[in-house]
Amino acid sequence: MKLTKILTLLFCFAITSAYAQQDSLTLNNIINKTKRLADEQPLEKVYLHTDKPYYAVADTIWLKAYVTSQNNIPSPLSKIVYVEMYNSVDSLVQTLKLPVKNSVAYGNIPLPMNTYKQGNYYVRAYTLWMLNFDPDYFFSKNILIGEAIDKQLITNINLSNVAADKGIKTTARIQFKDTSKKPLANKTVNWRIFHNYDVYSRGKGTTDANGYLTVTVTSKADDPIKKGTLVADVSMGDKELASASFNIRQNDNGVDFQLFPEGGEFIVGVPNQVGFKAIKPNGLGTDVKGTIIDDQNTEVGTFTSSFAGIGSFFITPEANKNYKAKYSTKDGITKTVDLPKAKEGITLQVTNPAATDVINLRVLASASFLEANKDKVFYLVGQNTNAVAYAAKLSLKNQAINAKIPKQNFPSGIAQLTLFDEKSEPVSERLVFVLHNDAMNLALKADLPTYKPRQKVKLTLDAKSKGQPIAGDFSVSVTDEAKVPVDENTEVTILSSLLLTSDLKGYVEKPNYYFNKTDDKKLGDLDRLMLTQGYRRFSYKEILAGRYPKIFLLPEQGITITGTLRDLTGMPIRKGTMRMMVTGKPIAKEITTSNVGVFNFTELNFPDSSQVVVTARSNPNYNNLMIMLDGTPSAAKGTNLNAPDEVENIDTLMSSYLSNSQKQYRFMRTLKTVEIKGAAIKRPSHSDYPALSGLSQIPDRFIDGNQFGGCNFLLECLKTQAPSFTFDFNEQKFYITRDYNQGVRTAAAIFLNGMFVDVNAINTVNASDVESIELFLNDPLGTVDRTYNTRGVIVINTKKLPKGEKMSKQAFLDMIPKKYEIKYSPMGYSKERNFYSPKYLPNAPVTSNDLRTTIYWNPKLITDEKGNISFEFNNADGKGTYKAVVEGIDKNGNIGRTVLRYVVK
């Protein structure tokens, strides 16, 4: 398929030879400058296929990363992909660094009890090359994690909001049950509500006979609690407490009704399609219906939303008339909003019938615009992921121009059609979704109609493209659907991600709805989504003026360690000898520095948590040399793009899954009582230092040093893992987030083992030597704030040797950092593990229960030259329906997904 096809439209316009050459130059300029962007700054996308949509604490997330480039062709660029786990308050929990080979990577995320608790999490994935562009295009997916091992409470909460004295009153109705689902009646509950990381409100109550407790909180005027947390401690008896936490999101129950004229402008005198979107404060769409009325209150049209609060209607506005949309919701809200003022101009209008192989395009101009611009030349350019796939020029002869654009010019995905005037100014734009049903067809077949528990299953995959077999790279997950039920419309799939959401800014509700048993209704809803969703990977005005996005990072080709070797006066050492070693592993390299003292160890391969030694000891007079390592680029702190999908009542949604997990992990229950003999060893803390004695005994936030085990540079990790604090990259200082957001620029104080230091001193500490980091948002006595003119305190405590232990002189000297040698633990590749799939012999005796929820996971399915591959596994003990999902891609960028269900009796 040719990506650029320049056509001359011959439907209703005439092009004369007098200006044809100039027209071609103008059109070629648009095409060439867009092509330059695609050539010099090719896009990358990442998609993660996970074995399940949700998990329990102690589970393992199994995943495969697909890395693609333009038109979703497997990317030849990046050789490393990063996968991050965040919790519901956007704190980074864990990072994986995975090697990419043949554009795919494999990984797993264990969910240990000491790190993960029940709640909403999300996974984010990207390459270093993607950091050059908007993080809204990173892969992001919500993941629920439930608690089953040490569970004491089953909860259900219902929140309601009402306006109150310029604020919002929130009522939380919470029911508490024990693990046998018996209501906890007459139990004392102490609760606290956190807002901006401070205790906003607290109280105490007693549950009623059905285990219910009501908590109310009213926000301050014009300051609703946007991202608060309600923590409830239930007295279970014998001084034992059980805790539960819930998200608090205050809103005014209003509806945001947005209007989107097709093509971008509301044009007078021609039929206009207007898209609309009705959104509740929680970000989800709501059904609406209504009427269009003019100045005289005459009804000129009606409308009804189709899916997720999205819909469209047609109207032909008259000159000098104003129009309003009057809508109502199923909750009884009725409001009226103004339509945009109709103006003279030109616009694009598209119909995209599924049954045809063309996009029907209309160029519509108002009468006055046609008169003023008759015979002028306009240009139409269609592109997909920055690659031009269609281009044409036209002369404006009539008020309406019709054209048909072949869909085969575009790959599957979002096509952006832009109309330019003769000055190369974009004047109208329309998104169209193209879906080629024959691009990849997958068929998954089972060898038997039904199976028994633990019986061997053989599945065969057949992959074809346009009837021809294809060699593709696939992954498969098989789950027990009775234990892992899921609404397929809410799933994140390779189709919904790579073809749709990876190219759209903002939240898309239930993206897989459009690809789950796609029919004409869903294709129509998808076209209405194109009318209302933001898309702007680049600005035509900018690139046509020669202003391209700045690139500051190149695609990673492997793990590298770079820096500069200098003498103690700061002068670089040319042709110096540098050696890199990995402690305990046969990995070592030796290189020489450049003429400006720069060294670069490339194509390294070592596992995460390895200790790396970089030394200049082989040089003469090495005691007078110092090594300066370069920093490691990292993504800015994440925010959950899919926050509206967060689930409050996890116990209810994951009931069947958690019930199974309780049985599966019953051997892991922790002891409730532990007898301690002897005094516990006191851990280093701020209370050890007189200068910090005025701070509270308990920090507002506490970070255990074990969280920094994989840090390359402590400062880089602290930037993303310090809750309540924001790091300003320009000022190179930390600020309390709530103050920073309000414009207050008083930096936080930083103390290292009781000594006041600047931010650069943080990287002098080896991350593995950190005992803890304590964060204080308040200084009650002002002893630190007044002394150092700061606000907020960050205290870094390093590990200490046990008292009374003798140390040799050499051991003491070894503790002193050497400028010519650096020992640290950069982030290495995460360790690859194999998914365990037991094999059972026929009629073998049953000695234990097989309670697996993921029955089989294989991320390495490669079809042969006939497009086929077979694989085998054994069922678990569960009966009912099992669900097999296969996803993958071929070398031409064709994407496929198929689902097979089979019955176990």
Quickly count the helices: 11
Give the CATH architecture of the domain at 685-799.
Beta Complex
Helical content (DSSP H or I, runs of 4+): 10-25%
Shape: globular
CATH class of the domain at 685-799: Mainly Beta
Strand content: 35-45%
Strand count, sense and barrel status of the largest sheet are:
5 strands, mixed
End-to-end Cα distance: 48 Å
Strand order of the largest sheet: 1-27-26-29-30
Low-confidence residue ranges: 1-21, 671-676
Which class do the helix and strand fractions yield? mainly beta
Q: Gyration radius, to the nearest Å?
A: 31 Å
Tell me, rounded to a whole number, the average pLDDT.
89
CATH fold-level assignment of the domain at 685-799: Ferric Hydroxamate Uptake Protein, Chain A, domain 1
Number of strands: 53
Furnish the topology, listing elements before pairings.
Elements: E1 6-8, H1 17-40, E2 45-50, E3 54-56, E4 60-68, E5 80-86, E6 92-99, E7 104-110, E8 119-126, E9 139-146, E10 154-164, E11 167-177, E12 188-195, E13 198-206, E14 212-218, E15 228-237, E16 240-248, E17 256-261, E18 272-279, E19 288-293, E20 299-304, E21 310-315, E22 324-329, E23 334-338, E24 346-351, E25 358-365, H2 367-373, E26 377-384, E27 387-395, E28 400-406, E29 413-420, E30 426-434, E31 441-446, E32 450-451, E33 456-465, E34 468-469, E35 472-480, H3 494-498, H4 520-532, H5 540-544, E36 559-567, E37 577-582, E38 588-592, E39 598-604, E40 612-615, E41 625-629, H6 650-653, H7 655-664, E42 701-704, H8 714-721, E43 725-728, E44 733-736, H9 737-741, E45 749-752, E46 755-757, E47 770-776, H10 785-788, E48 793-798, H11 809-815, E49 821-824, E50 854-862, E51 868-874, E52 880-890, E53 895-904
